[in-house]
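User: Predict the complex with MTE.
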Amino acid sequence: MKKSYRLLTVLLLFSAVAFAQSSGQPELSITGEVLKPLSLTPDDLSKMPQSKLKAKDRDNAEHEYSGVALVEVLKAAGVTLGGQLRGENLAKYVLVTAADNYQVLYALPELDPEFTSDMVLLATMVDGKPLPKGEGPFRLVNPADKKQARWIREIRSIKVQFARD
Ligand SMILES: Nc1nc2c(c(=O)[nH]1)N[C@H]1C(S)=C(S)[C@@H](COP(=O)(O)O)O[C@H]1N2
Ligand SMILES: [Mo]
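Assistant: Here is the predicted structure with MTE placed in the model:
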């Protein structure tokens, strides 16, 4: 009797965890050379400073994308940016990985407003609506690139690393 109760408790716990995972929104992890690793939901992002921009997609159609500047998310994780982006920190890169394992890379100065006026946006919305399935909940939009290849869809993780050992 006692044993079967224990078994029941274990089963209930397992199903509770499975339910929590299946009902949760996909999260975006930020790890590597960060002071504070983060795991962000679209709700978390909506509480950060919002940016919007207009950009032409691969089919040359203009859309308004909104979300958070990628640099803001990296700052929240404590990545060396601004005054700290000097010396050995200039050899760090940002590797972004999607659900389909597609990967793209940025160097920190491509993202830092002290180096560039171009914004790379971690978009969550397009034309006022959440990004559609297969694209969201997180996608990069980079109007400065002439090709959209780094507009990575369905982002799951961002890792900051040194390019050298
Ligand atoms: N996850 C993921 N993102 C991706 C790709 C991909 O294969 N997987 N292809 C890229 C390429 S090469 C282009 S041109 C654009 C195309 O974006 P679209 O499919 O929204 O038109 O997405 C980019 N983002
Ligand atoms: Mo492409």
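The radius of gyration is 19 Å.
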